[in-house]
């Protein structure tokens, strides 16, 4: 295997619709910078393979036969903390979105997402982003706005950790946070890991969701263009 091939983003697909799975597999097999390492039609057969292959990103359908995609993510995320799970689904309701993010999913995309947008989202999530289809992101923001504030666990964060969390919530990638705060990317990773521990979360999406919940959706400075 060449160095370039080894550095490609390794992706697995879990999708029960065979024609859709074939299309996704074809996209990823031919896309520069990506490496398809497997596709499966149900969670039960995917789980042991994912644990063995440890992909960078797993595209996970929600409505799978047998175990649901959300339950599969909930089981896998503690064992694969470095794998980013992106839900690919037809569901747009708040309950499905919340359950997926709470289980440990990092992104949430609709199945009608065009090829180029899907590949861009997978590249984004591998760099620390939390891609969501634009109307899904809007629903998430709206749900935060109607949630009453409560006692915030973010009070336990240091001033710098709160700065990093604020930038994460505003859509910045790890590299951009490092440049903005004049620190290294490994230092950003350290702050993020500490925040996860203090906030009792396992993913960027969960940390941002908890932050938005306790801040009433107000992230203060203007946000950059949303990453969808």
Structure, described:
The chain is 51% helix and 12% strand. Mean pLDDT is 79; it is low at 145-151 and 217-228. It is globular and about 50 Å long. It is α/β, with parallel strands linked by helices. β4 (84-89), α5 (94-103) and β5 form a beta-alpha-beta unit. A five-stranded parallel β-sheet has the order 2-1-3-4-5, sandwiched between helices. The protein has eleven helices and five strands. α4 runs parallel beside α5, α8 crosses α10 and α8 (159-169) crosses α11. The chain folds into two domains: 3-142, Response regulator (Rossmann fold); 149-215, Orthogonal Bundle (Arc Repressor Mutant, subunit A), CATH 1.10.10.10. The protein has helices at residues 3-6, 18-30, 43-53, 69-76, 94-103, 115-126, 134-145, 159-169, 174-181, 185-199, 204-215; strands at residues 9-14, 34-40, 57-60, 84-89, 107-110.
Q: How far apart are the first and last residues' alpha carbons, in Å? A: 33 Å
Q: Which CATH top level class of the largest domain fits?
A: Alpha Beta
CATH architecture designation of the largest domain: 3-Layer(aba) Sandwich
In spatial order, strands of the major sheet run 2-1-3-4-5
Number of helices: 11
Largest sheet: 5 strands, parallel
Helix-strand sequence: HEHEHEHEHEHHHHHH
């Amino acid at each position: 295997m060449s160095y370039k091939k080894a550095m490609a983003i390794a992706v697995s697909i879990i999708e029960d619709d065979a024609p859709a799975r074939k299309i996704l597999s074809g996209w990823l097999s031919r896309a520069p910078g990506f490496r398809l390492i497997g596709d499966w039609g149900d969670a039960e057969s995917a789980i042991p393979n994912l644990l063995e292959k440890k992909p960078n990103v797993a595209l996970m359908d929600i409505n799978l036969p047998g175990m649901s995609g959300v339950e599969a993510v909930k089981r896998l995320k503690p064992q694969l903390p470095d794998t980013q799970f992106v839900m690919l689904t037809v569901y747009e309701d708040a309950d499905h979105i919340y359950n997926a993010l709470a289980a440990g999913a990092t992104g949430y995309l609709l199945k009608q997402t065009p090829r180029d947008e899907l590949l861009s989202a997978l590249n984004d999530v591998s760099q620390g982003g939390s891609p969501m289809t634009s109307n899904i992101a809007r629903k998430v923001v709206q749900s935060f706005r109607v949630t009453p504030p409560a006692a915030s666990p973010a009070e336990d964060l240091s001033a710098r950790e709160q700065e990093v969390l604020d930038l994460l919530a505003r859509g910045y990638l790890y590299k951009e946070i490092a440049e903005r705060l004049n620190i290294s990317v490994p230092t950003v990773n350290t702050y993020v890991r500490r925040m996860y521990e203090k906030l009792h979360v396992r993913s960027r999406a969960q940390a941002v969701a908890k932050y938005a919940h306790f801040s009433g959706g107000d992230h203060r400075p203007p946000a950059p263009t949303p990453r969808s």
